[in-house]
Write a structure and sequence with these properties.
The protein is α/β, with parallel strands linked by helices and 382 residues long. Helices cover 34% and strands 23% of the residues.
């Protein structure tokens, strides 16, 4: 569903290169000039994180171009990957053959246009995509980008609205609501506030509708989202389908370990992002994020005995080691590989990845050593 190796569409890249040349006066061979803007935005999203309302960083054409060429492709890939797991692994699909999609805090369209494009590729093109944000400048970009990627089948509109206040959102029900980094910009309010926001957002879903909340992979953001997700799941009003496999609370939140739950998916960075990155030297081999997915209805359950990998996968001498969560408990899994060729070990390890789902027959224990690779079945690879 995400396409070969999670590739960002060429037509999306071309759209923003054209806009950058027209609006910011930066040609394709001068994209390195946007590197300072990328650094400034990165600091704003991570280390600075101002209290209260974030500044309207899309009011400046250079900032919008920097975001659209460097950060938007990553946001596109995050949203597509989260939806991909819900669709292909958890078998979600909209009840309507012409679904309505809402992008909350839409920016120039990284998440909303991404999921609408993915649904179209699945043969379920949305009848409508609405983006809401508080920045008039970015809403204009959202509309033009969405129409370029989705028209004439999907009607794309944008409205000024407060992402923090679900009661102000557009009327009607939606088959898919996506919110990218919205909670990250709500400030330092606790998990109760985030859980209340998720619950209110679910109230705008149609029967069988899906809410995707996508947040950074930074520990404070990922754990805040997970705590909020656990609280909403425990209420039972809306069913959690991702990335966790059930409604049980995460044991990692109380384990005190140095690792935490987040997603990591490989992707192919577009050429413009790579060009800008010549000055920044950032690792663009994978995209990291955290997310929560809730359905307004009764989804299909995951396969019996499924376990979710929540750590990096270590290949050491004679062993492959990783951590899973199974039935609400944390377990360290060791798979012996002695006597197996390096080629076969590498091929086997490629089927194991953070966020993947596996199954094995063994009793519960904090540390389990399986009999060998054949004792472990890979059910899902993100």
């Amino acid at each position: 569903m995400r396409g070969a190796e999670g590739r960002y569409p060429d037509e999306a890249e071309a759209f923003w290169l054209k806009r950058t040349s027209e609006d910011a006066g930066v040609a394709a061979d001068g994209l390195e000039r946007l590197a300072p803007e990328v650094s400034r935005l990165s600091d704003l999203f991570t280390t600075e994180r101002p209290e209260g309302a974030y500044p309207d960083y899309f009011g400046d054409p250079a900032a919008l171009s920097a975001y659209a060429l460097f950060f938007l492709p990553q946001g596109w890939t995050r949203a597509a990957a989260a939806l991909d797991q819900c669709v292909r692994f958890r078998k979600w699909k909209p009840a309507s053959a012409s679904p309505r999609v809402l992008d909350v805090g839409c920016g120039p369209g990284s998440c909303g246009v991404s999921v609408a494009h993915a649904l179209s590729e699945c043969g379920l093109p949305p009848s409508e995509l609405i983006g809401i944000d508080r920045s008039p400048g970015t809403l204009a970009g959202f509309e033009s980008f969405g129409r370029a990627m989705l028209s004439p089948v999907t009607k794309v509109t944008a409205r000024i609205s407060d992402a923090r206040n679900p009661s102000s959102w557009p009327e009607g029900r939606f088959d898919l609501i996506v919110a990218g980094f919205v909670l990250n910009e709500l400030g330092s309010d606790g998990e109760d506030s985030a859980a209340g926001w998720i619950t209110s957002a679910c109230g705008h879903l149609s029967e069988g509708g899906l809410l995707l909340v996508i947040e950074p992979a930074l520990r404070f953001a990922a754990e805040r989202l997970l705590r909020a997700s656990d609280r909403v799941a425990a209420l039972g009003r809306h069913r959690r389908i991702g990335p966790q496999l059930d409604d049980l609370p995460s044991p990692l939140l109380s384990s005190g370990r140095e690792h935490w739950e987040y997603e990591s998916v490989p992707w192919v960075a577009p050429s413009s992002a790579l060009f800008i990155n010549r000055r920044l030297h950032r690792d663009l081999r994978e995209v990291r994020f955290s997310y929560a997915a809730f359905v307004n209805g009764d989804p299909l359950p995951p396969p019996p005995g499924a376990s979710r990998i929540v750590s990096d996968v270590q290949t050491i001498k004679g062993l492959i080691r990783f951590i899973v969560i199974r039935r609400g408990a944390e377990e360290q899994i060791e798979v012996p590989t002695r006597g197996i060729s390096r080629h076969d070990i590498k091929a086997y390890a490629s089927c194991l990845r953070r966020g993947g789902v596996v199954r094995f027959e063994a009793g519960s224990s904090p540390k389990l050593r399986l009999s060998g690779p054949s004792a472990l079945e890979s059910l899902w690879i993100p």
